[in-house]
Write a structure and sequence with these properties.
By secondary structure, this protein is mostly helical. The protein is built from 16 helices and no strands.
Length: 396
């Protein structure tokens, strides 16, 4: 069953990755400026943030498999809407509608994690979660490259290809994925272990060993979205790169990050404490974003992109590990819920602010803003390092 859920996640993320590098070019075709494109990216994260708890409760009630199938079907319809946007009188409206609908239907990954929790024991759960992470990473490497190549046939072609792939994924899930053998009560308990409420979030964030990694993750994600939101249009406006070349660049970045997270991070974390990896990684990421702003040629951009992928590959898993280890054992699920919600909030705020800076200040200003936020994160990480080093008290 783990192999089946891996395939579902892998194919799902290929479809997601196909759309991402194309969307800015597609929106530009309909007259969207950078600020509008930022909102086009943000509405997906906003709807996902708001609706995810409802999908969780529904999966407790009727099962993981039906909700996963339903969300895949809705995602395919949303991708078809994106592909058909040019056929309507107000295509930009339909792009937004398609992205909002896709965000509402984005229960796939969260339900996949719940599915793994249901079918694994505590002893082999890490392996199951690792498979989900691998499917996520591999899909996001393949997707942008495929989307970029398909863009030569028009910006709607990748959208329809993503829809076809999602329908294929639906067929795989329908025939291969079985409902976990567990009761509704156990499904609810599994979800509640990961769930958090506002008061619980306040209680958790009152403890420095939890609040500090959450704040750092928010800042890092906010900075990275400054680049993600305007990368495609920046490469087009400054260097004339189309969707195909931008998609390949994003795929290369994903490949470098996968290499770091798949092997280097394990070795590095044994030699260097996580908080210092975070401090060093965020500083190097700030340097990378500064290089983006200063680069005068495409090779300079490649250097910046590689440095960004390498440094962020160390930062992301180190932050997740630090947040998990700083939480009480019986509240780790809720802590990770707060942690990932901080990232979702940053993905709602980051893209519109990047687009506004791009339009109102300069095309390089989002990179400078992201670099400044990362320098702040690096400074904070260094300041709190003594309290989060191994051997220090960690219980809140």
């Amino acid at each position: 069953m783990l192999l089946s859920i891996f395939m579902v996640v892998f194919i799902d993320l290929i479809g997601f990755g196909i759309v991402i590098p194309i969307l800015p070019y597609y929106g530009r075709e309909f007259g969207a400026n950078a600020a509008t494109l930022g909102w086009l990216m943000a509405v997906y994260s906003l709807m996902q943030f708001l609706v995810a708890p409802l999908w969780g409760r529904l999966s407790d009630r009727i099962g993981r498999r039906p909700v996963l199938l339903l969300s895949l079907f809705g995602t395919a319809l949303a991708q078809i809407l994106l592909g058909l946007a040019s056929q309507f009188e107000n295509p930009l409206f339909w792009l937004f509608f398609g992205r909002i609908f896709a965000g509402i239907c984005a229960a796939n990954i969260s339900v996949a994690y719940a599915y793994v929790t249901d079918v694994t024991t505590p002893e082999n759960r890490a392996r199951g979660m690792g498979l989900i992470g691998a499917g996520f990473g591999l899909g996001f490497i393949v997707g942008p490259a495929v989307g970029g190549i398909l863009s030569r046939y028009g910006y709607d072609a990748p959208m329809f290809a993503a829809a076809a792939l999602t329908f294929a994924n639906l067929a795989v899930a329908w025939f291969k994925l079985r409902e976990p053998i567990t009761s509704g009560e156990l499904r609810t308990r599994s979800r509640l272990q990961r769930r958090w409420g506002l008061q619980q979030a306040r209680n958790l964030l009152a403890h420095p060993t939890i609040a500090r990694p959450v704040l750092l993750f928010f800042l890092v994600t906010l900075a990275v979205t400054q680049m993600e939101a305007i990368f495609a249009i920046f490469m087009f406006d400054k260097y004339g790169f189309g969707a195909e070349r931008a998609g390949v660049l994003l795929a290369v970045m994903g490949l470098v990050m996968a290499g770091v997270q798949g092997g280097l991070i394990g070795r590095a974390s044994k030699l260097v404490p996580e908080i210092r990896l975070i401090a060093g990684g965020t500083f190097l990421s700030a340097v990378a974003l500064s290089l983006f702003a200063l680069a005068g040629t495409p090779p300079g951009v490649m250097v910046a992109l590689t440095l960004m992928a390498l440094s962020h590959g160390f930062v992301q898993p180190s932050l997740s590990s630090l947040a998990s280890r700083g939480a009480p054992e019986d509240q780790r699920g809720a802590t990770m819920g707060v942690f990932h919600s901080a990232g979702s909030l940053a993905r709602v705020i980051g893209p519109p602010s990047a687009g506004l800076l791009y339009d109102r200040v300069s095309i390089s200003s989002p990179f400078w803003m992201g670099a400044a936020v990362l320098l702040l994160a690096s400074t904070l990480a260094l300041a709190v390092a003594p309290s989060l080093l191994p051997g220090e008290p960690r219980s809140p």
